[in-house]
Write a structure and sequence with these properties.
Blueprint (H helix, E strand, L loop, with lengths): L10 E5 L5 H8 L4 E5 L3 H9 L3 E3 L2 H5 L4 E4 L4 H9 L13 E4 L8 H9 L4 E4 L2 E2 L2 H6 L2 E6 L2 H14 E8 L4 H29 L4 H10 L5 H11 L13 H17 L5 H18 L8 H4 L15
Parallel strand pairs: 1-2, 1-4, 2-3, 4-5, 5-6, 8-9
Antiparallel strand pairs: 7-8
Length: 312
């Protein structure tokens, strides 16, 4: 496929209409014919309101599709979506392309590529980063590992979603490798931001003013600016809006640890961050926004316990 074929005559099936999959499907529906499937009927209804044709099974959505874009949670859902009871590999035509956008780790990819090849289907490994809003705006970072000829077939699809499209290698799995590195940094940065803002509170500082000052200086980072306001909302009755679940970083930092151990590399900072997210999951925050990790460090804000700050 080249840019001249970017039209509603080209069909994409998006499997997984969650926090990322739904805005991805809606964004693609502006240029392509998009079918969508999610196990949750409410998500299918929302997709229908955004110009996506909802289906009640993955196979129904994928039948006749030129491309299947997977926005699933983990490696198990990847395998199930392609090869399970409702798996789509059997209904795709030879020459179709599967785009894998989720973080599942490099180790699972070779086996998936081999099984898909038996159906005459190719895989583009294209994990993405940026969050739901940026997905809807076409402002994602996408890192790609794929055969150049296969990537050429679906490049307009990825370009519709990405402001930064970086090809990191010619093999499926290369994208997962870089995304693993990316998630190491993201997980550590979120944990560090939570610790920093908890310390600001413990020292009697106004957290909002502290956050603004930190963002303006050398300590600033994308994750501090992105997660900081949500970290400050984590103590509210309903917590911060769930844009990225805490248990996602339990999964992703687990992938980081597995990859590092396989290479004989120590990653002690990532391991420490992983423990914070694991504790958060154990304390019942797994389905909350990942900003709630501050509640592992500091279960309650000091100001709400009526404690005086320094100099009182």
């Amino acid at each position: 496929m080249d840019s001249s074929t970017e039209s509603r005559g080209y069909t994409i099936a998006v499997l997984g209409l969650g926090a990322m999959g739904l805005p991805i499907a809606a964004r693609l529906a502006g240029s392509f014919s998009v079918a969508g499937y999610d196990i949750n009927a409410g998500r299918r209804e929302l997709a229908g309101n955004d110009g996506v044709t909802p289906h009640t099974s993955a196979r129904s959505a994928a039948a006749g599709a030129d491309t299947v874009l997977l926005a699933v949670r983990n490696a198990e859902q990847l395998q199930s979506s392609l090869f399970g009871e409702d798996g789509v590999a059997e209904v795709l035509e030879p020459g179709a392309v599967v785009i894998m956008t989720s973080t599942v780790g490099r180790a699972v990819i070779p086996g998936v590529v081999e099984r898909l090849a038996g159906f005459g289907i190719d895989l583009v490994d294209a994990p993405l980063s940026g969050g739901p809003k940026r997905a809807g705006d076409g402002d994602l970072l996408i890192v790609v590992g794929a055969d150049p000829a296969v990537l050429g077939k679906v490049r307009p699809v990825l370009e519709r979603l990405a402001s930064t499209l970086t090809v990191v290698g010619n093999r499926p799995g290369d994208g997962q490798a870089l995304k693993t590195v990316n998630q190491l940094l993201c997980g550590v940065h979120i944990a560090a931001a939570a610790e920093a803002l908890a310390l600001a509170d413990a020292l009697g500082l106004d957290q909002e003013k502290a956050l603004a000052a930190l963002e303006a200086g050398a300590a600033g980072s994308f994750m501090l600016s992105n997660r900081g306001p949500r970290i400050l909302e984590a103590y509210a009755e309903d917590g911060a809006e769930v844009l990225s679940r805490l248990d996602i970083f339990v999964k992703d930092l687990g992938i980081v640890g597995d990859a590092a151990r396989a290479e004989g590399l120590a990653t002690p900072v990532a391991a420490a961050a992983e423990q914070l997210f694991l504790l958060g999951q154990a304390q019942g925050f797994g389905l909350d926004d990942d900003s709630s990790v501050i509640r592992v460090v500091a279960p309650a804000k000091r100001a709400r316990r009526g404690e005086d700050g320094p100099g009182a």
